[in-house]
Amino acid sequence: MESRNFYILIISITLGLAVFWLTVYAVITLDVDLFQSSQTLVIKGEGITSEFSISLNELKSDKYLQVTDREFKIVNSFETEYYVTYSGVSLWSILEVENLLVQSPEELKFQFWARDAYHSPKPINLSIAQNSPNLVILAYEENGRPLFETGPIRSVIDDTIIPIGEYSSQYSVQKLSTIIIE
Fold first, then answer.
1. Cys-Cys link to 117, which of 8, 26, 30, 63 (CB 3.0-4.6 A)?
2. Overall pTM surpassing 0.85 (yes/no)
3. How far is the CA of 29 from the CAs of 24, 36, 48, 116, 177, in angstroms?
4. Cβ-contact 180, 96 below 8 angstroms
5. How far is the C-alpha of 102 from the C-alpha of 108, rounded, in Å?
6. Residue ranges of E strands in 57-182
7. Which has the higher per-residue pLDDT, 38 or 8?
8. What angle do CA 16, 33, 85 make, to 5 degrees?
9. pLDDT tens digits, residue range 78-135?
10. How many domains does the chain have?
11. In terms of domains, do 41 and 1 share one?
12. Do 55 and 143 sit in the same domain of this protein?
């Protein structure tokens, strides 16, 4: 009986250490926010003048173009279409008001990253945000309700402006934490 307890103890310690080191890896290497306490969005990358952080309250201010109760067409990889009403702020208006870009939008690409390390599949040209500011938003409400479980901020791009061969659902990143512009 004593040797069985010893083996259980060894296995428990081994599992504990594995979980600990995987957690450390996720926090440091993948920049995962375990406590999901951050309600700020970071815009960074080689395509902007300097790293820029903005809070949820600042996103909601009248300083930026607000898109209210707009219906977005979302298409997933099974080519199922659905329509969702979002409210949020135009990504382009933030970049423009804060004068963040170092190059023209045609030369830059952007990618969305979530707190849990999910990210949009590949960077897309920033000119789509410039040409359709009401169709590339950082949403904070879905169907008139704040985004609690999937937020507080979510990226949304209407399917009508997504590059051919891509699906808009892949660019609708929940728990958005970072936008990389390069």
1. 30
2. no
3. 8, 16, 23, 12, 15
4. no
5. 9
6. 66-75, 81-90, 109-114, 124-125, 136-142, 145-146, 154-157, 176-181
7. 8
8. 130
9. 888 989 999 999 999 999 999 999 988 899 999 999 988 888 888 999 999 999 999 9
10. 2
11. no
12. yes
pLDDT of residue 37: 47
**Closest CA relative to residue 134, chosen from 154, 151, 158, 169:** 158
Between CA 56 and CA 74 the distance in angstroms is 24
Helix segments in 29-77, DSSP class H: 56-59
155 Cα distance to chain centroid:
6
Reduced to 3 states (helix: H, G, I; strand: E, B; else coil), residue 42 is: strand
d(CA 5, CA 26): 31
d(CA 68, CA 139): 9
Task: For residue 122, give its domain range.
Answer: 36-181
Residues 26 and 42 in one domain: no
* Domain shared by 55 and 103, yes or no: yes
Co-location of 78 and 96 in the same domain = yes
Place of tokens 């979002």: 86
